Write a sequence for this structure.
């Protein structure tokens, strides 16, 4: 067996049997959807009309970072569950909710969620903020690394607040 054949066989086996994180079939066509990590889609607000697209993309779990009051005419939890997807909610209203306790809850939700998972808020900004803080406070990343991760997840308008929080605090032990 030559080196090229060995490489091809190894790559085929790795792709067939060693992939541990299911990928979405494709990125769902929803507001601000990005795939910041394997098996994870970050996005903005979803509605009832998006549920078929989420299922078609292979999404199995939805983590909603919005309070129910943001969508009074849409019972997201009931709609997502009726569509056959798992649902979790960590309601974050804004900068005051960017706490260590909420970051730890966010981390726990991500670890427990089946893959592929959609994590969303209204625009993706709160998702990115939580991802940045998680990267720093849970994973021990530097502030610059954490901000980069947050941006990949959708961090925009809350970047100044996230930077302030990162400057004030050390990683969670």
């Amino acid at each position: 067996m030559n080196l090229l054949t060995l490489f091809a066989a190894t790559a085929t086996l790795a792709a067939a049997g060693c992939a541990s994180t299911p990928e979405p079939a494709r990125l769902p066509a929803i507001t601000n959807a990005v795939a910041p990590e394997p098996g994870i889609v970050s996005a903005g607000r979803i509605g009832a009309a998006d549920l078929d697209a989420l299922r078609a993309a292979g999404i199995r779990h939805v983590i909603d970072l919005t309070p129910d009051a943001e969508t009074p005419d849409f019972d997201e939890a009931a709609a997502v569950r009726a569509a056959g997807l798992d649902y979790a909610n960590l309601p974050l209203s804004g900068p005051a909710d960017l706490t260590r306790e909420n970051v730890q809850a966010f981390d726990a939700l991500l670890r427990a969620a089946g893959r592929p998972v959609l994590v969303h808020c209204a625009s993706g900004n709160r998702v990115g903020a939580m991802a940045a803080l998680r990267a720093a406070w849970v994973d021990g990343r530097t502030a610059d690394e954490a901000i980069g991760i947050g941006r990949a997840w959708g961090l925009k308008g809350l970047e100044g607040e996230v930077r302030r929080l990162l400057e004030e605090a050390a990683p969670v032990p």
User: Anything to note?
Assistant: The helical segments are 3-17, 51-56, 76-82, 100-112, 125-137, 143-153, 159-168.
